[in-house]
Amino acid sequence: MGEIPIIDSRKRAQASTGVAEEPPATKAVFVKTFGCQMNVYDSDRMMEALAREGYGVTDSPGDADLIILNTCHIREKAAEKVYSELGRLKQLKDLRRADGKQTVIAVAGCVAQAEGAEITTRQPAVDLVIGPQSYHRLPSLIGRVSRGESRIVETEFPQEDKFQSLPERAVQRNPSAFLTVQEGCDKFCTFCVVPYTRGIEVSRPVADVEKEARKLVASGVRELTLLGQNVNAYHGQGPDGRSVSLAGLLDRLSAIEGLARLRYTTSHPRDMSEDLIAAHAGNPKLMPFLHLPVQSGSDRILAAMNRKHTAQEYLRLIARIRAARPDIALSSDFIVGFPGETEADFEATLDLVRAVGFAQTFSFKYSARPGTPAATAGDQVPEAIKTERLARLQDLLESQQAAFNAALVGRVVPVLFERKGRHEGQIVGRSPYLQLVHADAAADLIGQIRPVAVRSASQLTLSGVIETA
Ligand code: 5AD
Ligand code: SF4
Fold this sequence. Notes:
Elements: E1 7-8, H1 9-13, E2 27-33, H2 37-51, E3 55-57, E4 66-71, H3 76-98, E5 104-108, H4 109-115, H5 117-122, E6 128-130, H6 138-146, E7 152-154, H7 162-165, E8 176-180, E9 182-183, H8 194-197, E10 202-203, H9 206-218, E11 223-227, E12 235-237, E13 243-245, H10 246-254, E14 261-265, H11 274-282, E15 289-291, H12 299-304, H13 311-324, E16 329-336, H14 343-356, E17 360-365, H15 383-406, E18 412-420, E19 426-430, E20 436-440, E21 449-457, E22 461-466
Parallel strand pairs: 2-3, 2-4, 4-5, 5-6, 6-7, 8-11, 11-14, 15-16, 16-17, 20-22
Antiparallel strand pairs: 1-2, 9-10, 12-13, 18-19, 18-21, 19-20, 21-22
Residues 1, 74-75, 191-192, 293, 295, 333, 335, 364, 366-367, 369 line the site of 5'-deoxyadenosine.
């Protein structure tokens, strides 16, 4: 899934607040989230579960009785960040202990799942290691730690359904919310840890998703982004027992009054079914934006990656999607320096990028992940070549993004305003194409969709003026 910058509980605290039935906060939790949007969603749900146990969210780890690192294992750098953070937290824990205060340190997410007990060996200050399928057990596991147990490792895939066991969604302050509908992946791309850390593909039943969506919309959410590691492979059980596709799910969710926008991420090209493409033409709530990772433009590398499609097949798919929805903004993920990648392979990636024209993207140097097939391939690409290729690719991608944004100057786009901007009197929202849009307006427009005449664009944002009727 697409990366997001590291965020901490302060920012999410704006999104997730208490509900009436919660007890008053007597303890404080600090959550730091690394990696993808699914971790952001999981962190929110953990905080909601902990609110019921009397935990309030703090933005200062020094004040926290409980610190959770929700971690990412996708690349080596992401995993290593966790250990350096844990080193700092150990010092903090010692300082608090000297003051007579207990601090529980928990490691959640994909590093927890992948490394388990190794984490407590490398950093004994960690009290609890908890994998993504066990978050509903968090309150009881923390109870065990408070009763004196230490180094608890919970990384099984439990029988009971996490989603059924987590409390209902709390009131949301952000009008745009994530909703996990599918977890895990069966694709086994040879570079990727996800099938090992998140397990096999599982779809939540339609009724569950609908219930959560209705709850979110009733609490003020206007836009939902359906999440899954391979979300377009969604095949949840429908109310009549038959399986429902992602397009079918989007169709049902569109019926929710008050919900204005739907998005989904991340998709695999092989699962871009006919009905989903048709939904981009026929479902007015489905936003014209698609994140469809291609990884490489070289057929040789795509085959070595076990991506199960060629560059031509990807291009033909894009043509069909654009025929259905001509203005769709396309996004993708790229890996440079996969084992065996030659200059010619890399140039094939640049050619594919030129042929498509992307609105925004994520691009990475290949990072060997323990336990994945590509990690032990003999022909690893030297770091310096990866660095040089990434810079060339990013130059091209950035110029495409800037051009995509510049093309909107002079046009009017509907913007869902999400929050206050950095400058006084400014609010920020998103266009249908997922661009950040700034406008000068009162904060009471947050949560509303307004037409904005775009006046200027940069590589990353647009700014404009709200049109009045
Ligand atoms: N090295 C570099 N990038 C990776 N990704 C996944 N695994 C690796 C790896 N081992 C990238 C892919 C994926 C995105 C979420 O992260 O591009 O789509
Ligand atoms: Fe990883 Fe490939 Fe599955 Fe995406 S499709 S999560 S890259 S194995």
